[in-house]
Task: structure prediction
Amino acid sequence: MSTILLIGTGRMAYHLGHAIRKAGHTITGITGRDPAKLADMARFLDAPPLRWDHTWPKAEITVIATSDDAIAGVSARMPSSQGTVIHTAGTVGLDVLAQHAHCGVLWPVQTLSHGAPTDLSDIPLIVEGNTPEAQEAVLKLARSISGSVLQLNGEQRRRVHLAAAITSNLPVFLAGEAQRLLRRENLPPGLLTPLWRTTAANVATIGPEHALTGPARRGDARSVREHLALLEAEPDLRRAYALLSAMILKAYGHPADGLEDLQGDPR
Result:
């Protein structure tokens, strides 16, 4: 097992820190810029808090679990390490850690929200290392946490991040927009919860191609037009609905002749 220095006080540090402890590693310390958040995180993970402006102890692996934009600054703040320094971002390259001889990435392909620690034991972990030593260190750490570990290069990792954003972020935002439309009509947004659960379960079990239903999938252009008419007061959402419906119609071989409004064309 490894000694770990954890940098960060947000959701990634919280969930990954719990997984690191569960795997039997020793967190030698936690540090972050916000003293209040640092105190909470140290309590949650039962690990010593380290002041940001003090010298940090050495560790076999230093995990930078901060926001993407902060990684380069944190790396520059650190002295050169004999251990392995890794970050946890899906789209950030290894170049931000270039001052460290051995560096890498450990990125969980999972949404990490507030609440109870997420069980990462079957969550895909994407890893990368710049040297054989770094690769070995990050692989051992990842495999102690999850049974699903993939070694990918930076370009592959960015592609996975794009796919993850399309899979998770966009549908969640659209679900929020749908609930907003219901609230505007004084209808309970919870009406959509069973539909959301069933859809997600079907995507996981039979795949999106078979799980997809609805008017565009059936080629029902009349219903699509009616929906677009209902969205006249929501121009941004109307354009999004139109474009996605057009994509679905084309993907499933339905004609879209004469349906210019499906392309969001204002003419």
